[in-house]
Amino acid sequence: MRDELFVAEKGKGAYLNGRKIRVSRTKALSHSMLATGFTYHVKAARNRNIRNFSKFLVRAQAVRRAGSAALDLCYVACGRFDGFWEMDLKPWDTAAASLIVKEAKGKVTKFDGSRYSHYDKNILASNSLIHSQMLKFLSK
Hints:
The protein is α/β, with parallel strands linked by helices. It has helices spanning 46-57, 69-77, 91-103, 131-135, and strands at 6-8, 14-16, 19-20, 33-36, 62-64, 83-86, 107-109, 123-126.
């Protein structure tokens, strides 16, 4: 759609259309552009991520919802977003893109700050500079 190809190989960096990418350098949550998504079952679990969304909406510069976890993660990797969180994801949503974030010097964890696996349902990804600030406000 945008003629963009994000690529990463473990230990070799992350690239967008052949050019090396890095996460943003934004240090304050209040200056951050964040992204999130909502489960397909939002009516059954409507309060789960809405609380998180509300918390970040008043603390960040802005929060966006595009609809693709993989693309949102890639946008963290190239600095378009400073952070991303989402719940109830599947491995195909995050497996490749979480590596792209890590290779772009970002941080990827579960909501409690522990190591993330693409089999985990909840993900927090950031430029690493705002990661601890975001962890304080996430509800599991």
